[in-house]
Amino acid sequence: MDDVLSAIPGPARPLDVPTPPRVLVADDEDDIRALVCLAVTRAGGAVVGAVADGTTALAAARSDLPDLAVLDVSMPGATGLEVCMALRGDPATAGIRVLLLSAGASPDDVARGLAAGADAYLAKPFQVAALVQRIRALTAGQLA
Amino acid sequence: MTVAATTGGTAALRPRAPRFAVFARALPATAMFAAASLALAVGLLPVADPELVAAGLATAFLAGGVAGLVDRTPATRSGALVVPCAQFAAVALLCAGTGSVAVLFLLLGPVLALITAPGRRGVPVAVAGTAATLLLPGLLTSGAGLPVADSAALLLGPLAVGLGGLAVHDTSRRLARQAAVIERLETDRAGLLAQVRTRADELDVATRMLAARAQTMTSVIDAVTEQSIIGTDRDGVVRVWNPGAERMLGLPRTDVVRKRSIVEFHLAEELAEIAAEAGTEAGLAALVHAAQERGSDVRDWTYVAADGQRRTVAVAVTPRTDDRGVHAGWNFVGTDMTEARATERMKDQFVSLISHELRTPLSSILGYLELVMDPDSEPLTDEQRQYLTTVERNAQRLLRLVGDLLFTAQVEAGRFTLQPEDVDLAAVLRASEESVRVTAATAGVQVTVDVPDEALVVPGDAVRLGQACDNLLSNAVKFTPSGGRVELSLRAAWRLPDGEICEDEHPGAEPVARLAVRDTGMGIPAGEQGQMFTRFFRASTAQRNAVPGVGLGLSITKAITTAHGGTLDLESAEGEGTTFTITLPCSARHRDHPASLR
User: How far is A5 from chain B (nearest CA, A)?
Assistant: First the structure.
């Protein structure tokens, strides 16, 4: 994954521009995780953590306090929904934006994700451009 | 009641006169005159005056002959008196002619004939006749040698005849009446006996029919070995327990019937849970609550067998009534769904697995393809771009297939939901045409769209309706050879209560939208058209012509149409083409304002 990340040139960051939004990525699929990290970079964000399970994702979110957490729903340890609910239940992390990614594309799946407290829900397979757009929208405050 | 009716009227009891009554009554007297003739002939009786004797005998036998004639005349009652009177005269002549008192025994003949005749008027005639007979010999012989000259005899003889006659007459009348009653009772008894025999036969037949029916029912219930049939009384005590119940719950009939309650075979927690939901007491009330309200109820319950094993059983609960229609208990017919439910769970898990395991790698494939083919990335050669376009197309095809499989599984599991909104079908058709335009052009198929200018709105799920339209259109393009045509059309129409579709508005008709996809393709053989909406079925023409596909599109389209309250119809002729028509009910605004459809 690091190889993939290093192969993608990031946007130019002059010293006077604000700090890019900090994004935590959690997905148990290495390829998808790397793809999401690329999208974060393309959206002008900075990946503060790329983890493969829900438990680590929750710990990373609590320690790093990212601006946005992109979480896969089906993960070992804790599902994306559980991580999302845990973040919302903790005042320290309740403000973290959450974007859920899932192979479940039915209206019920989307409804469950939003009910868990997610700010957005994207079904797999997703278009990278759509993911980039969604990340930008969710981190608009930080980019402004 | 019958007896009272038959004895109630005198006329009904009066014995009918026999056909030869007068002759029969005169016969004893005639016989006695014959005996007297014999006695005269042999000298047992003296002959004082032969002329009077001869006149007496002649009168006697003449009276006997007249008796036979009287029976044949209408004046039988009057004639009945003439014959005894003549016989009295004969006795008087014989008495005078013989001068013997013994001849008076001949009086018995006419006297008996008169007092046994119908009616009482024979009695005074007998008294008068007797008196005359006793008196007449004296007159005929001028008082000389009178056999009966005693005035006491003249008085007592008729008196005795009168009293005796009345007594005999009344007795004979009473006897006749009793005989008539007995005869009637005999007739009634015979009738009643015949009725009893008939009823007994009918009862016997009915009893045998009931026994046969009961035997049939028992054998049918006993033949059910894969379903439990349990009948209870109103308190839930088991009364019927078939072999299916024995097999499912592991207890023989003898251990259960009249000894156990149906509730004992249910999971207590489950009954308590349902009772809490329904607001009833836990136990039988929870079990039958829904059936009591709706007349029947079918749902999954957990049966606990004798060995403690739990089984998921779909139980149909219905109330049972007795022969008077009074509620008598409950019937519980159960089908073991343990394996089926386990299979359904496995299928759900499989669908979930497919969803994740296929869509996730497809996410990677499509995502990285997008990055590689991004115009901002390293430029590709035309050949590389062509190869990658092929990869992307097939990845998208695989994605559609996964989507179709998932959707089919959802439909089958009954978890297919719609996101209802007002959908403009014209826009849906245009979008479908646009999506197929490139493919059709490549295949050399001309696609035309004919939609009304005004919006034709139906209530439904825009995504699913688009999917249905896409399926029909992509099928039409796939099955139409180069140079052919595909026509997409949308029309407002009216559906009559009997289901018939017409183009003009009719009273009672509902507005509908008719979406048709007509092609000039290879068509579907007539024998296969009925199976076209079956999952994974592919027409032989599709297989012969190697048209790609797995046979899910039409079944999905049918499911979507049905879920929208519509119908999907097919018309096809092999070698000429096929038309699929979706008919959907229009939205309320078209129903409320039919003019909007014109």
Answer: 13
Q: What Rg do the C-alpha atoms of chain A give, in angstroms?
A: 14
Tell which B residues from 455 to 494 touch A, by Cβ distance under 8 Å.
none
Q: How distant is the alpha carbon of residue A50 from its chain centre?
A: 9
So what's the pLDDT on residue B330?
95
Rounded Cα distance between B241 and B332, Å, is 10
Let me know: does A120 contact A134? Beta carbons within 8 Å. Answer: yes
> What does pLDDT average to over chain A?
87
B290's tokens: 């829904």
Counting Cα atoms < 13 Å in the Cβ hemisphere of B149 gives 12
Q: How far apart are CA B234 and CA B253, in angstroms?
A: 19
The half-sphere exposure of B544 on its side-chain side, counting CA atoms within 13 A, is 8
- Does the CB of A35 have a partner CB in chain B at under 8 Å? yes
pLDDT in tens, B457-492: 899 988 889 999 999 999 999 889 999 999 999 998
Confidence at residue B496, expressed as pLDDT on a 0 to 100 scale? 86
CATH number of the domain where residue A105 is located = 3.40.50.2300
Q: How far apart are CA B209 and CA B221, in angstroms?
A: 18
Q: Annotate B285-303 with DSSP letters as a single string.
A: HHHHHHHHHHS-EEEEEEE
Nearest to A107 among B364, B368, B419 (CB): B419
Q: In sequence order, what are the residues at sequence separation of 6 or more whose Cβ sits closer than 8 angstroms to the Cβ of residue B145?
A: B48, B99
Does A126 contact B363 at a Cβ distance shorter than 8 Å? yes
Beta bridge partners of B487: B448, B518
Domain B224-336 CATH superfamily:
PAS domain (3.30.450.20)
Q: Does A31 touch chain B (CB under 8 A)?
A: yes
Which tokens belong to A77? 């340890």
Domain that holds residue A48: 25-134
Say whether residue B400 is in contact with chain A using an 8 A CB cutoff.
no
Q: What is the pTM of this model?
A: 0.53
A4 part of a folded domain: no
Both tokens assigned to B410: 């959802």
Rg of chain B on CA atoms, in Å:
57
**What distance in Å separates residue A102's CA from the closest CA in chain B?**
8
Asked whether B70 and B79 are in contact (CB, 8 A), the reply is yes
> Which residue is associated with the tokens 């459809």?
B597
What is the phi-psi region of residue B162: left when phi exceeds 0, alpha when psi lies from -120 to 50, beta otherwise? alpha
- Domain range B421-597, CATH architecture: 2-Layer Sandwich (3.30)
CA distance B246 to A32: 56
- Asked if A126 reaches chain B (Cβ–Cβ under 8 Å), the answer is yes
Q: Please tell me if residue B367 touches chain A, with a CB cutoff of 8 Å.
A: yes
